[in-house]
Design brief:
It is a single chain. The protein is 39% helix and 13% strand. It is α/β, with parallel strands linked by helices. The termini are far apart.
């Protein structure tokens, strides 16, 4: 009997390995495990069922430079025409709104890193993202401060980057020198205006000195979960530009409205 049980487990293991070898992409295993849709609660389903993904994650026209919504046929918003960002391209999968704001809170603040594969799969569907990842030399997550990392237990941007580009993701190239809110009387970054955030984040990022020479002329994809005003990505891009990178594309799951009214979760 013991032998039969062992044989059965071995057979299951072989079938699982065969299934893994047949997966069409890096997200398929997580996407096909039985679960309950976190939005409509359908069961059995995936964490986000296809119907909810189709309903709440429709592709919309966005500014090529900062990813805010724009009318169809408008490639760049007026703000980016007046003051072009340091990133050549910004891509966002969804608006920071229902249901994504709540799901991101589960991911970041309620200790559920298992969301990374599902959310990265959603990001991967964003028009232009696959070519950006293919053309990138390195995929860099926005780092958390040491204090924030201790509180959370993981960096959500790093988990997303590793799902999107496991062979290109590098967690130790871009360093965070301070949290960004230490200079604002403990005011949370999301409560600040863009100008205040830019001033607050000045000097917040640096390139690891041993990595700096290897960045010259490289094409970089920056990954974060939410873009609010773009100040965090701007500060990170400043450090990368000083190291001589050739191009930067910013990739986020969610983009807030221009005035950032619902973006309280962004670090």
């Amino acid at each position: 009997m013991q032998f039969k049980a062992h044989t059965g487990l071995s057979g299951i293991g072989r079938r699982l390995r065969a299934l893994a070898g047949a997966l069409p992409n890096r997200f398929a295993l997580a996407g096909n495990l039985p679960s309950q849709c976190a939005v409509c609660h359908a069961w059995p389903s995936t964490r986000i069922c296809p119907a909810c993904a189709a309903r709440f994650a429709q592709a919309v026209a966005r500014c090529n430079r900062c990813a805010i919504r724009v009318p169809d046929g408008v490639p760049v918003c007026g703000a980016c025409l007046r003051a072009p960002p340091l990133v050549e391209r910004s891509l966002a999968a969804v608006d920071y709104a229902y249901p994504w704001a709540g799901l991101l809170a589960d991911f970041k603040f309620r200790g559920d890193p298992g969301w990374a594969a599902t959310l990265a799969a959603l990001m991967y569907r964003t028009p232009g993202l696959a070519p950006a990842l293919d053309g990138a030399d390195l995929v860099l997550p926005i780092p958390l401060s040491a204090e924030r990392l201790r509180e959370r237990g993981f960096n959500q941007a790093l988990l997303l980057a590793r799902q999107l580009a496991p062979t290109k993701a590098r967690p130790a190239v871009l360093l965070r020198l301070h949290a960004g809110d230490a200079h604002a009387g403990q005011a949370h970054q999301a409560q600040l205006t863009r100008a205040e955030r830019l001033r607050n984040l000045r000097g917040a990022f640096a390139v690891e000195p041993a990595q700096a020479a290897g960045l010259r002329g490289r094409h970089i994809v920056l990954v974060d979960d939410v873009m609010t005003t773009g100040a965090t990505l701007h500060a990170a891009a400043t450090a990368l530009r000083e190291a001589g990178v050739a191009s930067i594309c910013a990739v986020v799951l969610a983009r807030t409205e221009p005035h950032g009214g619902t973006a309280a979760s962004h670090p």
